[in-house]
Amino acid sequence: MAAPTTTTAGGEILLSARGVTKSYAGADGELPVLAGIDLDVRDGEVVALLGKSGCGKSTLLRCLAGLIPVSSGTVSYRDKPLTGTNPGTAMVFQTFALLPWLTVRQNVELGLAARGVPPRERAEAALKAIDLIGLDGFESAFPKELSGGMRQRVGFARALVVEPDVLMMDEPFSALDVLTAENLRGELMELWESGQFPTRAIVLVTHNIEEAVLMADRVVVLGTHPGTLRAAFPVPLERPRDRNAAAFQELIDTLYQTMTGRPKDTLRPPGRGPAYPEAGDTRRTIATVPLPRASVDGLSGLAEILVQHDGRSDLADLADDLGLEIDDLLPLVDALEALGMALVEDNDLLLTPRGLGFANADVQQSKKIFAEAAWEVPLVRLIATSLRRSADGVLRDGFFRDLLAHHYTSEQVAQQLETATDWGRYAELYEYDAGPRVFARAGV
Amino acid sequence: MSWPRSAAGRGARPVRAADRLTRLNWVDLVVAAAVLVGLYVVLRVGRGTAVSFTPSRTVTVSTDPANLPYYAARSLLRMFAALAASTVFSLLYAYTAAHSRRLQRILIPALDILQSVPVLGFLTVAVTGFVALFPGSLLGLECAAIFAIFTSQAWNMTFGFYQSLITLPRELDEVSRSLRCTRWMRFWRIELPSGAIGLVWNGMMSFGGGWFFLVASEQISVSHHKYALPGVGSYAGSAIAEGDLGKVGWAVLTMTVMVVAVNFLFWRPLTAWVERFKNEQAEATEVQRSVVLDLLRRSYWPRLLGRVLAPPARALARACRVFGVDDRPLAVRPVRRRAGDLAFGTVATSLVCWGLVDLGRYFRQRTGLGVFGEPLLLGLATLARVLIVLAVATLVWVPIGVRIGFSPRLSRLAQPLVQILASFPANFLFPLATWFFLRTGLSLNIGGILLMALGAQWYILFNTIAGAMAIPTDLREAMDDLGVRGWQRWRRLIIPGIFPAYVTGGITASGGAWNASIVSEVVTFGGTALTATGLGAYIAHATADGDYPHLLAGVAVMSLYVVALNRLLWRRLYRLAETRYSMG
Questions:
Q1: Which residues of B touch A (CB under 8 A)?
Q2: What 3-state DSSP class applies to A367?
Q3: Which end of chain B is more exposed for a tag (fewer CB within 10 A), N or C?
């Protein structure tokens, strides 16, 4: 039934999002996590939603599946706006989300039982799906007896057995080791090509660029804070795809550039959201320079590795060499950029003189360099200067939480403060006492 | 990968069940016999509960030791009836609270307050109510006893299950909705299993505490009537009244056997079985073991039971489709929602106001609002006793508990023993203590502290042992290595290490001590009654006199004290334990 093609246009529109925004309550009104998303998923295509962590790609997937309501805009399935869970989708989860107290077969049968399918037909359909997905022999096993790859197969079988029009996959391979993930990806795409399941389209959420290019017919890149559609790239490559093909590599480079690049050369719809400001930009504020989730050890480690590469390295190669997922690498890159220690040029990450000095210095000196750099980071500077001005040199963290809440969701606020605490402590600009939850001027 | 393990170890797999029918082994016979005997006992004992009875006549309890097995069975039946009632209540209450945004606002605070109400204070109300409900039958008293045990178990279990419902992992919620499970499937396949471990462990703990209320409720005097129900507790009471220490010994022995047997035959297998509902993806390294469960698993009965129960379960699932599909509407009309909230809020508030006004009028007519003054003052005396119990128990048992917890050999021996001591109803021994007080002339104002401590102290010891065992060995080795000894070691390692467990024990001990004060501040032996100054004695007197306004005021004030102590002390310590002193 499935008619997978490598072209993106043509098929009937199964899912469509129009002007979808999703926001959560913040200090002054709503904080957008997704803004102005227009997206169609057509019959026969595999769409990858690619973005850094926190860009709202999983939120978008859940909006499309009807699991969470949108704040404005509409999601429709076959031209019908959703009023509840999307009847045409089934979900595969990053954490597998199997019920540990049910056997493999009972897990797979769950969706059929929910539809009131009689036991015998249920068992038949489940066994067929189990067989197809390569799980035969494991029917009566419990999930905890299985390896990660086998568990995710159960996840696939459970979703496919209810014959959804659109299969929704939320980072389905990211909890697996590299080899298992590779194998499972290959088998899934073979199954998709062979059309043995009546599933008509796949939406895949991933932060892995290579995975997106390997699997998708169309890669949609989401920007962060709030999540917007930055760009969409068709993948006109025959399956199975050759990683070493020039076109494959070129696309990967382009995607890296899009994900790390400045917004000016991308399709950014009007709306708020911080840019990636140039160093020294006068408009650097706590809102425009969000602190990435990066520890001092991590970013100095990256700087030292860059020194070994003569201060300049291709991002994709770097990720490959270090065996890092882009989700792990990009926060470190953002951190080095925010501190003025590195720049991204084309696809290369290169150390600035400050970064070079930081990487080569001994502990005390590197602390000094770091302190200088951190002073230019708006949030760190805000905390340090506020403490200088306060009479007793002590301020409750609630004060900064309130300030941040104007621009970030509560989860993001916590992460911003966590990073700021780590950086400020290392720079010896201020201290933090977790008991009474106060920041204190260094030495107070 | 850890596949596959032996099928027997995994429990009942319905594979090729038919060919096993022919090979009944001795295990099957033992299990079958045990079930038969159990059924017979329930029937036999259950018949006694419907004996006709008029409240004016006192039911006598024979002190012939030959009656003890029967009495023990009656007591057990009460305990299990209460457990069943608590379980059903917990499931319904917690489910309603977790799934209704509006009812949640009322049900959860209500639960918090119910938890603080001294159970024994309500025994009188329950007795009069239930006796009126079943006139001329012992069933009313029986229900009152069960109700007393129920109130000691239900809140805890409900809170636990409610917590597990609202902390259901997000993916499991999404799985259920994405597969369009029915509401029944969500409950039966997802919510109940993921809360099962908590439910069973809470049930076990509450059951241990329930013995105390069983003993208290088997012999009670309300409005100058003395009531007694056949049971171990009332047997001990009669034996002590006769002054026959040998028979008291028999009663203590029976009680001990009951506590140990229920643990061995019921809770151990259940806690081991419920491990299968652990929501973790790796096989656990440390598992609960139970000989009884292993025996059951080796027998054929679980499989047969599974096959017999499958069709009704399917029918139930089909019938429960009427509850609809687990789906949440994406669009809520804010106007309608607000109107609903408003209507609900108005109705709830006016109901509460009406109740308050009515209560106020009741007090004004009977006694005036000054009735609260006396219990408030007396509460201070009882509060002082509770605090002394906690302080002394801490000073005595924490060092001992740490010593036991640090020694694997000692803790293996001591842990089950202390668990039994914690379950053993201390009020069983109160008359003996009273005899001792009479002989020595010790005032109950001081002796009462001892009585309250008899039950409460074990929670502190038990939890201290658990806390000390949880301190990682490498931390202790690091302290040895650095030469941190004596007070420094206590301050830096031991106290922070056991703190979370200690707080848990302290909360339980504090609650237990308040409840025990009602039976500890007035005690009788033979014809002599000793009374201490305190809120417990106030409530006990109001109970005996059938003086409802004073009783109500006493119970309300005690609840107030319990809530205040919880909010001002325990909740803060608990938060501190969670944020600052949690391991890892």
A1: 1-5, 10, 13, 15, 169, 171-172, 174-175, 177-182, 185, 189-190, 193, 276-283, 314, 317-318, 321, 325, 327-332, 579-580
A2: helix
A3: C
d(CA A67, CA B174) in angstroms, rounded, equals 7
B288, B415: one domain = no
Q: Copy the structure tokens of residue A228.
A: 């917007």
Gap between the Cα atoms of B37 and B24, Å rounded: 19
**CB proximity A70 to B under 8 Å:** yes
pLDDT bin (cut points 50, 70, 90) of residue B383 is very high
| CATH at residue B404 | 1.10.3720.10
Percent of chain B past pLDDT 90, that is, above it, reads: 15
List the end-to-end C-alpha distance of chain B, in Å, as a whole number: 27
Sign of CA dihedral B183, B184, B187, B189: negative
Helix-helix angle A410-426:A397-404, to 10 degrees:
130
On the question of pLDDT at A272 being above 90, the answer is no
Strand-pairing partners, residue B219, are: B228
Angle at CA of residue A167, ends A163 and A173, nearest 5°: 125
Is A114 within 8 Å of B171 when comparing Cβ atoms?
no
CATH of the domain spanning A296-441: 1.10.10
Phi, psi values for residue A228, rounded to 5° = -130, 160
d(CA B89, CA B155): 9
Say how many CA atoms lie within 13 Å of A164 toward its Cβ: 28
Average pLDDT of span B505-528 = 84
Q: Give which of A101, A102, A104, A152 to mutate to test B binding, by max B Cβ within 10 Å.
A: A101
Query: What distance in Å separates the CA atoms of residue B475 and residue B480, rounded to the nearest whole number?
Result: 9
Q: Say how far apart CA A125 and CA A131 lie, in whole Å.
A: 10
Residues of chain A positioned with their CB less than 8 A from the CB of B329: 83-84
Q: Do both B306 and B160 map to the same domain?
A: yes
- Phi, psi torsion values for A71, nearest 5 degrees: -80, -35
Average pLDDT rounded to a whole number, residues A237-262: 84
What are the residues facing B227 on neighbouring strands? B220
Phi, psi of A163 (to 5 degrees): 50, 60
What is the C-alpha separation between B308 and A308, in angstroms, rounded?
Answer: 70
Closest CA–CA distance from residue A422 to any residue of chain B (Å) = 18
* Tokens, residue A262: 């400045």
Asked if A130 and A108 touch (Cβ cutoff 8 Å), the reply is yes
Q: What is the ipTM of this complex?
A: 0.76
Mean pLDDT value of segment B283-305: 75
**Contact indicator for A166, A131 with CB cutoff of 8 Å:** no
Query: Given an 8 Å threshold on Cβ–Cβ distance, is A99 in contact with B193?
Result: yes
Q: How many domains does chain B have?
A: 3
Phi, psi of A133 (to 5 degrees): -90, 0
Same-domain pairing of B299 and B396? no
Which residues in chain A (136-195) have CB-CB distances under 8 A to chain B? 138, 140-147, 150-151, 158, 162, 168
| Predicted local distance difference test score (pLDDT) of residue A275 | 40
Cα B394 from Cα B390, distance rounded (Å): 6
State how far residue B171 is from chain A, nearest Cα, in angstroms: 6
The token pair at B483 is: 């030469």
CB contact (8 A) between residue A99 and residue B189 = yes
Q: 0.95 cut: is pTM over it? A: no
Torsion sign, CA atoms B192, B196, B200, B203: negative
Signed CA dihedral, A219, A224, A226, A230: sign only: negative
B298 and B411 housed in the same domain: no
| Phi, psi angle pair for A24, to nearest 5° | -115, 160
Better pLDDT: A265 or A413? A413
* Alpha-carbon dihedral B320, B326, B330, B333, rounded to 10 degrees: 40
Taking the mean position of all CA atoms in its chain, how far away is CA B103?
A: 25
Measure the CA–CA gap between B297 and B9, rounded to whole angstroms. Answer: 8
